Amino acid sequence: MTRVAAGAAAALCLSTAVVLHASQGARYPAPVIDRPDLLYVRSGPAMKRAALGYDGFLADVYWIRALQHFGGERTAPPDHVRNYALLYPLLDLTTTLDPNFNIAYRFGSIYLGEPYPGGPGRPDLAVALLRKGIAAQPHKWQYMQDLGFVYYWHLQDYKTAAAWFQKASEVPGAPSWLRPLAAVTLAEGGHRGASRTIFEQLAQSEDAWLRDSAQRRLRQLDTMDVIDGLQARVNAYARAHPGEPVTWQRLVASGALPGVPVDSSGTPFIITSAGRVTIARESGLFPLPGQDPENPS
User: Fold this and answer.
1) Hey, what domains does the chain have and what are their CATH numbers?
2) 5 burial class (0-12, 13-18, 19+ CB within 10 angstroms)?
3) pLDDT tens digits along 153-169
């Protein structure tokens, strides 16, 4: 057989195979895998062995995927049931492949601690991630500061938070304000004044995400102060008009308020059926500390 004939025969066989494969695909379509929580490799050590020296490159890949997963769920439409199940496994893979991946530890802990629906609401996993970072880099006072932040803000464990701030202050090169911060946290744990002290310091961070997060917390604290003032007026109106529904319109008409109050995001406050003032689900500050994200009213 000549080379031309052999080539023609091969081309014919190839085209026949393509046609048969296409017809088979049309008759028996491949199953579609739609599993947002699917991660083929979850073991960091196993992935590190399989990386064949490309640990840093794969760490970047998994970090990008963690960002995409968090951002995709956080910005999903309101009717979407948010599922952050892959966030910690992706961060764990990232930091196992590169134990010195500072951004993954620090930003990852913020993402994990964010209350649902803006995040998974898993401060326990934020603690686990930061402890992993401290084990890998014991000289990083920033991880200890962040750990104190998680214990203070999300877990309301002020004694442990103060202990981590104190430990961070003892690391060579740590800023001088960490030591008094530990004392304030221990003495005033749970008070807004102590919270303000912490977040005012964090708002000076060189990390934009941490700085922005702290500034948002400060806005929430300001909003809580405003709510206290509004609540006093609502209570006074309710006492003066027993049995009458309390609405912003009635308070405005009575002269108790100049207009319907809005929070710093421009969203009107709401009065719940129990007569409590709070922010609406649509607010950019939702949920406030202690506010049930599933039942804000």
Assistant:
1) 44-216 (1.25.40.10), 227-297 (no CATH)
2) exposed
3) 899 898 899 999 999 99
